[in-house]
Amino acid sequence: MAMQSLVHAYHRCTAHFAVLLALIPMLNATQMRADHFSGASISYQCLGGNQYRISLDLFLDCAGVAITPHSLNFSNDCGVSFTISGLTPVSVTEVSQLCPSQTANSTCNGGTQPSFRKYRFQTTLFLSPCNSWTINWYTCCRNDTENVMFTPGMYVSASLNNTGGLCDNSPVFIDVGIPYVCVNQPVAYNLGASDPDGNLLSYSLISARFGMPAPTNVTYDPGYSSSAPIPGIVLNPVTGQLSFFPTITGYFVVVVQVKSFTSGGQLIGTVMRDLMFAVVACDGTPPTTIGLSSGTNGVSFGPGTFVACSGNSFCVSMQFSDPNPGQSITVTSNAAAVLPGATFTTTGTNPVTATVCWTATAGAFPIGIAFQATDNACPVANTSSFAITALDCAYLPVEMLDFTATPEQEGVALRWRTGSEQGTRSFVVERGPEPSRLDQIGSVQADGNSVSERAYAFMDREPLNGLAYYRLRISDWDGSEELGPMVPVWARGTGNAYAVAMADGWSVSGAVPGAQWRLLSMNGALRSEGRADDNGTFMISMHAFAPALLVVESDAGRVRLKLPALAGLEPGARITALP
After folding, report:
1. Which end of the chain is more exposed for a tag (fewer CB within 10 A), N or C?
2. 502-516 burial, b for 16+ CB within 10 Å, e for fewer?
3. Whole-model pTM?
4. Interval 94-123: pLDDT, tens
């Protein structure tokens, strides 16, 4: 075992040395600074008249050297490029995930507990109209991590479109900075991105980068990649929810890109968040939730979304719990900040019910609402974060009460209700992988003229595998058309998992990659558990027990399969999900 470790260390060292040789010119150009960069992002705010306030957020390990001035680089497709240098921080905030009694003992304050600072740099300037501006920042050095070879520097960027009078604000992140998560425990983490303009957001994992000065993908250590920076990690492209089950301690780089689309499906901007997870041995387990669990005044809701109409007053609630009854939970949210006039309250200590009450405001949709649940473990508190999305029920001449897309066993079920109609001929159903790439997949005849509620439904029996956007196009008898509401849905693996009988167990396919599975006896006792691989498959040995109930869970939902005893079954027998 010792010899194997030495061999592994030798190969890792030689690989790092090769990367170092390639990076020496860049390191010399940046004067070999030793800043310990642990994360970064760029955001922008439109002030009107093509004036923009650009913010650069940098996260540094307090064990590193002091912050230095930084530069932002600007370029567009219209032939303009320039650099603003010498930027200094406008604010400095400690973002250590420590319990209150240990804050004074952080490395930021001269102590021993690991901690980080967030530095914000800003500049305000005029950007000439162009359909594609890119703003980027890069530096030479990042923290040493488990999944990226050596410390090849860091690069982040943002893009915007300000042609034709567009005045868009980028999505903004409210995440705590450097999340500490528990080894051998399920992790739920959300960046808490929201769009001030109510644009649709789409999330994806991308490669970490560094600048040479052109953006260059880092080299990942064996077993890691841009799409799997932590083995088994799953990103919900609709909500931005990250889920994974870390099995070794250390620092891990994860980079998320957020695309922003207008209600008409036009890509209007992008931002990226380079963040670092610190996987540590924890005292206890983090809080959990199943998402929204109740609503009032007839509001339509699911685990991760709710649909509201302008002027409607209602409340939605979600419950957080910690398996350790001795822990108390604190829940915070940005609901009051992103929903005009909303209130946020909590009741209980463990479990805790978090409630958002709001009178819906026209023009506030869609919007992401973030929640963070923290227990009172010490010195490092256990946290989980989640997000839900508020959607608008109506912004059309047809009075739309709601429009929902729900993954079911037969496909994706689309349902909508109208409060009134005038001269409406049909509802055309469109679907696509992005808001800008929608195709017609069917239509439903409208009632035409009504002053009372009407309900409609359409089943997409061959849904896209993964993220899809659905939109209604309202066609009137006079030949005119109006674009209806658009809703995202993540259907991959929901209700599609199935098990095939083998000689000594079951082969399961069709699950969400990284989904957690549990095998229960028929009296509910846990027999075994694990996670699906990157292809959504896994094996279950059934030597010692049968029949059993298999439960597969992910952000896409829950699937149950009742597995009979293997005795008497023909190999290849297929078991599908329970309704």
Report:
1. N
2. beebbebbbbbbbbb
3. 0.69
4. 998 888 888 899 999 989 888 899 999 999
